[in-house]
Amino acid sequence: MTTVMRETKETKIQVELAVGRGTTRVDTGLKFFDHMLSTFARYAGLDVTLHARGDLTHHLMEDVAITLGTAVREVIPATAARFAERTVPMDDALVQACLDAGGRFYYRGPLKNRLYEHWMRSFCEHAKVTLHLRILRGKDSHHVTEAAFKALGLALRDALVDSGTVFSMKGSVALEVK
């Protein structure tokens, strides 16, 4: 179990996370956001307990992304399968997530909602993953956003599988800061 806490003047976030069965207890005070976070964790196969409060929706969502991304980074095995792609249909929406959990941040969207677009970028930055998110179809913002969280979750589940080998021509990378 990994526990990450983040507290600022604006927010207070606590995340407990483990690779598991996708059980969640999420409370941010924002019902749709709670639904997206629970959906992500369920599809990723992550057991997540998350409690968050903040002054503004933007601050709350950004700091949750930072905290959850940091927790995810801590559970990525050195010998993770690393690369994964999932495409999810949800009613009118069709969303593809292509993921590399190899330790380098990059995000390419966009989602239609700027808050959720920012969440994805901040999550990827702190999880140190590369994510290319493609909206192939979709008019309903709810369906597009939810399909994106499902696709991200499923791709992450596949990427986290311990392959028993390092998928990099560099081999294992050691970085020490003193």
**Total separate domains:** 1
The CATH topology is what? Answer: Ribosomal Protein S5, domain 2
End-to-end separation in angstroms reads 26 Å
Model regions low in confidence, pLDDT < 50 over at least 5 residues: none
Tertiary shape: globular
Spatial order of the strands in the main sheet? Answer: 1-2-4-3
- Percent of residues in beta strands: 25-35%
Number of strands: 8
CATH-derived architecture: 2-Layer Sandwich
Overall radius of gyration: 16 Å
What do we call the CATH homologous superfamily?
Imidazole glycerol phosphate dehydratase, domain 1
Secondary structure: helix percent: 25-40%
Sheet with the most strands?
Answer: 4 strands, mixed
Q: Give the SSE order as H and E letters.
A: EEEHEHEEEHEH
Overall CATH class: Alpha Beta
**Helix/sheet category:** alpha/beta
Number of helices: 4
Rounded mean pLDDT score: 94
Explain what you see.
This protein has 178 residues and is of the alpha/beta class. The chain has a single domain (2-159), classed as Ribosomal Protein S5, domain 2. It is 37% helix and 31% strand. The protein has helices spanning 31-44, 57-75, 114-127, 141-159, and strands spanning 2-7, 11-19, 24-27, 46-54, 83-90, 93-100, 106-108, 130-137. The protein has a four-stranded mixed β-sheet with strand order 1-2-4-3, with helices on one face. Strand 1 and strand 2 form a beta hairpin. Helix 1 runs parallel beside helix 4 and helix 2 packs parallel to helix 3. The chain is globular. The protein starts with a strand and ends in a 19-residue tail after the last helix.
